[in-house]
Amino acid sequence: MRIIATAIELDPKYAKAYYRRATCYLQTLKYKQAIADFKKLLTLEPQNQLVRMQLDSTQKILRKVEFEKAIEMEEEKSPVERCFEIIAEGGCEVDKTYAGPVLPQTDDGKYTITAEYVRDMIQWFKDGKTIPRRYVWEIVLGAHSHFVQEESLVNVDIEDGMTIDVIGDVHGQYYDYLHLLSLTGEPNENHALLMNGDLVDRGSWSIEVIITALAFKWLYPRRMYINRGNHESKEMNRTYGFEGEAKHKFGEQTYKLFAYIFTEMPLATLVSATKPPVGSTKNVILSPEGRKRYFVVHGGLFSKDGVTLDDVRQIKRIGQQPGQEGLMCNVLINGLLLWTDPQELPGRGPSKRGVGIAFGPDVTKRWCEANGVTGVIRSHEVRQDGYSIEHDGLCTTVFSAPNYVDQAGNKGAFIRIDAAGSQQYTQFDAQPHPPMKPMAYASGGLASLLM
Question: pTM here?
Answer without folding.
Answer: 0.84
